[in-house]
Structure formats: C-alpha cells, structure tokens
Design goal:
The protein is α+β, with helices and mostly antiparallel strands. The chain has one domain. The protein contains 2 helices and 3 strands. The chain has a 3-stranded antiparallel beta sheet, with helices on one face. Strand 2 and strand 3 form a beta hairpin. It is flat. It starts with a helix and ends in a 7-residue tail after the last strand. About 5% of the residues are buried.
Length: about 100
C-alpha cells in the first residue's frame, strides 16, 4: 500500500468516526425502521409490556392458524414481528394504559 493510499484510508477512518453535522443526509438515511433514544424516557414501554404484547400476538397468530414470526424486535414504544418468507412486518404500538 502506497503512502498516499494509507493517507486516504486514514482520512476516511477519521471522518467515519466523527458524528455527522446536523442536517447532513447519511448514506443509510433511507431505512425502514430507525431507533432513536427519546430524551423523554417516560414514553418508553417497559420490558414487561413488550413481552406481554409479543405473547398476546403469538397467541392470536396460533389461534388463527397463522405462522409465527421469524424474528421479533423490541422498539422503545412498540414491537415489530418480522416474517421473512413473505417479507412482511407487523408493528404493534404499545400505548399507555388509560386512566379509569
């Protein structure tokens, strides 16, 4: 590897480790699901709520005779059930319980 090549590589590595400027469009900007940590954590669903939502959805799928998801992702306020064979995603939002 030439000195110039090493310099370009080192420059790319330095810029890759810096966070992008605000408003800069990234190469991976067009994504289906993006997770960002909320500054207000009060709206985040608890792990118990997410597990219960997954269990209820799996029970509903089983009762209807439908296939189980290939993969389940836990988001901050939702769960995502991914079905690889049909390339489908079911998103379940977890809302705050209503006050009586």
């Amino acid at each position: 590897m030439s000195v110039a090549s090493r310099g370009r590589l080192a420059s790319r590595l330095r810029t890759a480790s810096r966070p992008p400027a605000v408003g800069t469009k990234l190469k991976h900007e067009s994504v289906l699901i993006r997770c960002r940590l909320s500054r207000n954590a009060s709206g985040v669903a608890t792990l118990v709520q997410r597990i219960e939502a997954e269990k209820r959805m799996r029970d509903l799928l089983e009762e209807a005779g439908l296939p189980q998801p290939d993969y389940v992702e836990y988001g901050f306020t939702c769960i995502r059930l991914l079905f690889n064979s049909v390339r489908q995603v079911v998103i379940i939002d977890i809302d705050e319980p209503e006050d009586p």
